[in-house]
Amino acid sequence: MRGRFKNVVTALAQEDEKVAVILGDVSVYQFIRFKEQFPNRLYNMGICENTLISVAAGMAATGFRPFVHTIAPFLTDRSVEQIKLDMCYNGFGGNIVTCGASFDYAWDGATHHTHIDLATLRMLPDTEVLQPGSEDELESLLRSQYANSKTTYFRLSDYPHTLKTETAFGKGTVLKDVGAGVTVMTAGPLLPNVLEAVRDLPVNLAYFHTIKPIDRAVVERFRHTRILVVHDAFGLREAINEVPGLWTAYHGLPDIFCGWYGTVHDIRAKLALDPPGIRQAVEGMMAGLPS
Could you give the CA distance from residue 131 to residue 153 in angstroms, rounded to a whole number? Predict the structure, then answer.
């Protein structure tokens, strides 16, 4: 997904002289050609994430359209004050683009896990929060949102899916509507696991890449059902519950510190976010429906 990010931003920079890239010692080699073409519009500032955000806000204040990019926990969890004040409060919009979200870098342990970023950033005023699950979604969202003067968060994954979904900003995708009493809602690169888990079950399935603003029309469509939110982070369930009067449950992260090591697939299995674990959770909700 980082390769597609680099390609799209490079193409945008050829069309828009206000596009600039600020790196935190990540994806530097991805952007070598960008640096050769636009030497005055790429800055690798090293491991100083709070400063990256402040510099992006300063560049936005002078009319640039910055893309600031490094590893997710350091650019979001660590830098939320700078995002809140330098970007949101001042109205200096820019594009925050991270890699390694959730448990993509599970082998580096809890310091590199990120699961509260979506929930945190969606609470900041006038932000847009995006979790593209595929490269096609990413490209569509980058092109449509990069120049809108808002603070927009793009949460990249090293494990994108290749499924065809609605790619337009703010739009969810209904993948199954069988008139069932249970609806599963999910987001981002976890979709293949969810789809495999429920493929032959009599449940509805809705998918989102835009966490804020959530597609309220899709949520409203299933308000009469019990909604199970399956997600490897916090933020989606909270966004769905902006629609009042829903019955929702969450299958994802437990209320314990996730200090495990391994691969993203190891951690998903540990959390029952692999297909068998998701299926068991869905079947449990189905069994609880009134007869």
Answer: 8
pTM of the complete model: 0.96
Beta bridge partners of 229: 185, 250
Supply 172's token pair: 């969810």
Strands 226-230 and 19-23: unpaired
Residue 4: how many CB atoms within 10 A of its CB? 18
CA-to-CA separations, 202 to 175, 228, 246, in angstroms, rounded: 13, 14, 20
Q: What is the number of helices (H) and of strands (E) in the chain? A: 12, 12
**What DSSP line would sit under 11-53, residue for residue?**
HHHHH-TTEEEEESSSSTGGGHHHHHH-TTSEEE--S-HHHHH
Write the CB contacts of 262 (distance below 8 Å, at least 6 apart in sequence): 106, 107, 270
pLDDT (tens digit per residue) in 19-60 = 999 999 999 999 999 999 999 999 999 999 999 999 999 999
Least Cα distance to 203 among 136, 278, 260 occurs for 278
User: What are the structural domains of the chain?
Assistant: 1-155 (3.40.50.970), 172-287 (3.40.50.920)
pLDDT digits (tens, 9 = 90+) for 253-262: 999 888 889 9
